[in-house]
C-alpha cells in the first residue's frame, strides 16, 4: 500500500493558540479572551459553563470509533483512503484521518486546496476539473515550492486538456500535473459519457507537455439513490464502465501505478468490490476510496444507506456511529402539540432530512424523547410537533440527531468535541469554509 500522506502537525497545533471571542457562536462569554488551549484546560461543560444555544457538538468516542473502523476495513480490502475533506474542512480532523493511515485528502475546489496546503497536506486528490488559469498558476507555484507535494486532478474533455495546457505552459512549471480521465453518468455531473470521448481525452493528455495521464476517476453516487437492488445494480454497472475504461487505456498511462478512484459514502462497499477485483496482468492499479462522511456518520441519510449504517451490507467491522448532535432550547409552547426550538436553517442541515429529536434535557435529568418530530425549519426556529402525552416545557433542551454531515460543518467555525459524558468539552474543532 502507498505511503500515508503528511500534514504539518505544528500548524495544526497552532490552532490551539487562537483566542476565543464573539466570532464563534455558542462559545460562552466566560471563555472570551482565552486561547483554545487555555479554555480546554478548564474542562468546560456544554451546560454547566453556559455554551449558548443552539450548539452542534461532536462526540469524540463516536469519532474515534468511525476513524478506526474505516481504517481497518480499507486495510482489510487493500484500499487506499483519501477521504473528502469538504465534509469537515477541519485540519485537526484531517490530521486524525491521516494518523489512521489515510493515503491523502480529497478536495473539490481551489479554495479547499489552499486550506489543505496552508496546513501542509502533502498528497491531494482533486476530484473535479481544474481549468481556472489563476488556480492553475497558483498550483504550479505550489508544485515548484514543495517537491514532496503530490497532486492529481480530473479532466473530461479535450477542450479541458487544452485549457489546462495553455494555463500551465504560460507559467513556470517544474513538473507535469497528474490527471485522471473522469468517467461520468448520463444526466449526472461531470465525466465522459462514452468510450470514444475517453480515448480522445486520454490522447490529448498524453500529447500535452504539461500533463501526465495517471489513471481513471469517477463518482458512483448519481447512479443510485438508496440501498435497493436496482440502485446497487446501477452503481455496479457504472463501476464496470470505469473498469472497462481503465482496460481500454492500458498502455497509455504515464505513471508507475494506475490510480483508479471512486467512492462516496453511500456505496463504498460496491466500490471496494469493483476496484479490488483482479485487474489484467501487468496493470499496477492503486485503488483509492474517497468517502468523507464516515468520520461523523449521521442520524439520517447515511444511517439509512451506508454499507456500515443501520442496515449494514458489511459484516467484517462494526457499524458506524453518529458523532453529531445539536442542542436547542425550547423557547415557546404557543399551542397544544407544538413547541418552538431556538435552532434553524442557519445552524443545522435540512437539504436531505430534517433534524431528529432524540433526547430531552430538563432540570431533573436527560432521557429519551419519543412521539416528537421536527416538522419544519425557519431561519432560526424549528417547529417541534409533540404528542399529547409528551411533557416538554419552555426552558427544556432538546438533543437532535442530524442528517448529511457535509451541510453541518459549513455552518460552524468552531465545534465543541465532547468526552464520554457527552458534556465535557475535550477539544474545539476549527473549520475553514
From TrEMBL:
Keywords for the protein's UniProt record, in alphabetical order: Lyase
Keyword Lyase belongs to the record: yes
Domain D-serine dehydratase-like: 323-419
SUPFAM superfamilies: PLP-binding barrel (SSF51419)
SMART domains associated with the record: D-ser_dehydrat (SM01119)
Domain of life assignment: Bacteria
InterPro entries reported in the protein's UniProt record: Ala_racemase_N, D-amino_acid_metab_enzyme, D-ser_dehydrat-like_dom, D-ser_dehydrat-like_sf, PLP-binding_barrel
Assigned protein family: Belongs to the DSD1 family.
Protein name: D-serine deaminase, pyridoxal phosphate-dependent
The species this protein was found in: Actinokineospora diospyrosa
Amino acid at each position: 500500500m502507498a505511503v500515508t500522506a503528511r500534514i504539518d502537525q505544528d500548524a495544526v497545533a497552532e490552532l490551539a493558540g487562537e483566542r476565543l471571542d464573539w466570532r464563534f457562536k455558542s462559545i460562552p462569554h466566560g471563555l472570551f479572551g482565552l486561547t483554545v488551549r487555555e479554555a480546554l484546560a478548564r474542562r468546560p461543560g456544554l451546560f454547566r459553563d453556559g455554551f449558548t444555544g443552539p450548539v452542534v457538538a461532536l462526540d469524540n468516542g463516536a469519532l474515534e470509533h468511525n476513524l478506526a473502523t474505516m481504517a481497518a476495513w480499507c486495510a482489510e480490502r487493500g484500499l487506499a483512503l483519501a477521504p473528502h475533506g469538504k465534509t469537515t474542512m477541519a485540519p485537526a480532523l484531517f490530521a486524525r484521518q491521516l494518523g489512521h493511515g489515510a493515503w491523502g485528502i480529497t478536495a473539490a475546489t481551489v479554495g479547499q486546496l489552499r486550506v489543505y496546503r496552508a496546513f501542509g497536506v502533502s498528497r491531494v486528490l482533486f476530484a473535479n476539473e481544474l481549468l481556472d488559469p489563476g488556480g492553475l498558476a497558483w498550483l504550479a507555484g505550489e508544485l515548484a515550492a514543495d517537491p514532496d507535494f503530490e497532486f492529481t486532478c480530473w479532466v473530461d474533455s479535450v477542450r479541458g486538456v487544452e485549457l489546462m495546457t495553455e494555463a500551465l505552459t504560460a507559467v513556470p512549471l517544474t513538473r507535469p500535473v497528474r490527471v485522471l480521465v473522469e468517467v461520468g453518468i448520463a444526466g449526472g455531473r461531470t465525466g465522459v459519457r462514452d468510450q470514444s470521448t475517453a480515448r480522445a481525452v486520454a490522447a490529448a493528455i498524453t500529447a500535452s507537455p504539461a500533463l501526465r495521464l495517471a489513471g481513471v476517476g469517477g463518482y458512483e453516487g448519481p447512479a443510485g439513490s438508496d440501498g435497493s437492488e436496482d440502485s446497487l445494480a446501477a452503481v455496479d454497472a457504472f463501476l464496470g464502465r470505469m473498469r472497462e475504461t481503465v482496460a481500454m487505456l492500458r498502455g497509455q498511462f504515464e505513471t508507475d501505478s494506475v490510480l483508479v478512484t471512486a467512492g462516496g459514502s453511500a456505496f463504498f462497499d460496491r466500490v471496494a468490490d469493483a476496484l479490488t477485483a483482479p485487474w489484467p496482468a501487468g496493470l499496477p492499479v492503486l485503488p483509492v476510496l474517497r468517502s468523507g462522511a464516515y468520520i461523523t456518520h449521521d442520524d439520517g441519510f447515511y444511517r439509512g444507506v451506508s454499507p456500515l449504517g443501520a442496515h449494514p451490507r458489511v459484516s467484517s467491522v462494526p457499524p458506524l456511529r453518529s458523532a453529531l448532535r445539536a442542542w436547542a432550547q425550547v423557547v415557546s409552547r404557543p399551542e397544544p402539540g407544538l413547541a418552538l426550538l431556538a435552532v434553524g436553517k442557519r445552524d443545522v442541515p435540512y437539504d436531505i432530512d430534517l433534524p431528529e429529536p432524540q433526547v430531552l434535557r430538563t432540570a431533573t435529568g436527560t432521557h429519551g424523547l419519543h412521539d416528537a418530530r421536527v416538522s419544519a425549519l425557519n431561519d432560526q426556529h424549528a417547529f417541534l410537533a409533540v404528542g399529547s402525552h409528551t411533557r416538554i416545557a419552555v426552558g427544556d433542551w432538546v438533543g437532535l440527531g442530524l442528517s448529511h454531515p457535509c451541510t453541518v460543518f459549513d455552518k460552524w467555525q468552531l465545534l465543541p468535541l465532547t468526552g464520554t459524558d457527552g458534556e465535557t468539552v475535550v477539544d474545539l474543532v476549527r473549520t475553514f469554509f
